[in-house]
Amino acid sequence: MGQEVNCKLRLGKRVAEGKALLESQELIFRASELRLKIAFREMSSIEAKDGWLRLRYPDGAVALELGAQAAKWADKILHPKSLIDKLGVKAGMRISVVGVGDGDFRRDLAERTPDVSEGKAVPASDLIFLRADSATDLNRLRALQKSIKPNGAIWVVYPKGQKHITEGGVFAAGKQAGLVDVKVASFSPTHTALKFVIPVARR
């Protein structure tokens, strides 16, 4: 999940007080009179100096007064984590992919570890990636946890902005299956990933 801070923004001659949010691939600013979203790929220059983060994008120049966070945000923008790193995939892990068909994701998985099962969950998986397009898919969580190691995890990958499957619904399904949610990540422009683990008391 992104990091949000209260800050001042300068956009041309405009000055606004609001909240800035640094996501994995974009910077978002929200104020009562202004909303701004800039993807990292649109930024042509990034500089942190004297507590200000300054950047340029196609519509002009923006400056955010972030204090000590300015240098950290600049570094995260210049050196973003890959999706595989955000999801905690490490070399040598046993991975099960159930229904997640994203080609780039599967290619990056294969480059990180050779132990990848497609289409079904194998015993002693370090991570399981489950695609959930409906609430019915979430019913598999209870059974799938039997295939992860005690300290393993299940990532539920579900579509953003849908009414038939929401973040709240995914949280509830995980809890009902006896799991604990520990992390959320943007999987793609269209999908979110939510990480569940077995409670420590049951490991």
Describe the structure.
By secondary structure, the protein is of the alpha+beta class. The chain folds into two domains: 3-78, PH-domain like (Roll), CATH 2.30.29.30; 83-202, Rossmann fold, CATH 3.40.50.150. It has six helices and 13 strands. The strands form two sheets. Strands 4-3-2-1-7-6-5 form a seven-stranded antiparallel β-sheet, with helices on one face. The protein has a six-stranded mixed β-sheet with strand order 9-8-10-11-13-12, with helices on one face. Strand 12 (180-186) and strand 13 form a beta hairpin. The longest helix has 10 residues, at 69-78.
Strand order of the largest sheet: 4-3-2-1-7-6-5
Q: Terminal Cα separation, in Å? A: 26 Å
CATH superfamily of the largest domain: Vaccinia Virus protein VP39
Main β-sheet: number of strands, strand sense, barrel status?
7 strands, antiparallel
Number of domains: 2
Topology:
Layout: E1 3-11, E2 14-22, E3 26-31, E4 34-39, E5 45-49, E6 52-57, E7 60-65, H1 69-78, H2 83-86, E8 95-98, H3 103-112, E9 116-118, E10 125-131, H4 135-138, H5 141-144, E11 148-159, H6 167-176, E12 180-186, E13 191-197
Parallel strand pairs: 8-9, 8-10, 10-11
Antiparallel strand pairs: 1-2, 1-7, 2-3, 3-4, 5-6, 6-7, 11-13, 12-13
Q: Which features characterize this protein?
A:
203 residues; alpha+beta; PH-domain like; Rossmann fold; 2 domains; 21% helix; 43% strand
